[in-house]
Automatic annotation (TrEMBL):
GO molecular function, one term: zinc ion binding
Region spans: Disordered: 220-246
Name the record gives this protein: Ankyrin repeat and MYND domain-containing protein 2
Keywords (A to Z) from UniProt: ANK repeat, Cell projection, Metal-binding, Repeat, Zinc, Zinc-finger
Record's keyword annotation contains Metal-binding: yes
Protein's UniProt keywords contain Signal: no
Subcellular location: Cell projection
InterPro entries: Ankyrin-MYND_dom_contain_2, Znf_MYND
Database matches in Pfam families: zf-MYND
UniProt source species: Trichonephila inaurata madagascariensis
One cellular-component annotation, GO: cell projection
Length: 246
């Protein structure tokens, strides 16, 4: 999916890892994108493209700052490799106790706050919507921004890749079967945080299946295991076809 459409910072970080020349010339790329943001807003009256180029410049700048901080922290040479941004990606997607990626949420909110054209109607719409949602609550910032810039309300958020946000994730976690990924790379990157939520999702799925089976048995007039004939009658209509709602 195009990085102009998938505005998830992780998607852009993965794209840069596959195209290290962007990181090699990051300062120049950031200047160009910021200039395009100005041009689209002031000369072409295109708020959407202006915001998108600002967003990409902000994400690239965030990646560069993270790499510099890592270099200062561990004393590395700062060589660019195909996995150099994996620590930054994991920082963004790490879930809290309920699996919510708080760092990604804060990063995106700061991204919008840094947009310079506060009179922009799109900016004002995003600020109003984001300010009405507390940190950690749904809808997430990535959902709000994606809907505003791409009109993605109709896409099923459950099928999104849990790592990069691609809306067409076709692979599921083989254990919980509740979380989607677009490929093995995204699944491996997400496992460090998903492994704490995976057993919880499995348990929730088992409960849902058990509830559905109980409802089906009840509506079909089937005998519920462990109930006597008299008890069974308490669950049936007068014609024995289903549950009584009296």
């Amino acid at each position: 999916m195009s990085i102009m459409t998938n505005i998830n910072p992780v998607a852009l970080a993965l794209y840069m890892q596959n195209n290290l020349c962007i990181l090699d010339h990051a300062e120049k790329v950031i200047r160009v994108f910021n200039s395009l943001s100005v041009k689209f807003y002031t000369h072409e009256d295109n708020e959407l493209m202006s915001l998108k180029f600002h967003h990409m410049a902000f994400v690239i700048d965030g990646c560069c700052k993270f790499l510099k901080s890592q270099k200062a922290k561990d004393g590395s040479k700062g060589n660019l490799t195909e996995d150099c941004l994996n620590p930054f990606i994991k920082y963004l997607i790490k879930g809290d106790s309920e699996g919510f990626p708080m760092a990604l949420e804060k990063f995106l909110r700061q991204d919008i706050q840094k947009y310079p054209y506060h009179e922009c109607s799109l900016f004002q719409e995003l600020v109003r919507t984001l300010s009405s949602v507390q940190l950690g609550d749904e809808p997430s910032a990535i959902s709000i921004i994606s809907e505003a810039v791409n009109g993605q309300r109709g896409l099923d958020p459950l099928s999104r890749c849990a790592t990069c946000g691609d809306p067409f994730g076709k692979k599921k976690c083989s254990t919980c079967k509740s979380v989607y990924y677009c490929d093995k790379t995204c699944q491996k990157l997400h496992w460090f945080t998903h492994k704490t939520q995976c057993p919880i999702l499995v348990k929730m799925s088992q409960i849902e299946v058990a509830d559905d089976e109980a409802k089906n048995q009840c509506s079909g007039g089937a005998e519920i295991p462990g109930t006597s004939g008299a008890e069974k009658g308490a669950f049936s209509n007068s014609d024995g076809a289903g549950c009584s709602h009296d």
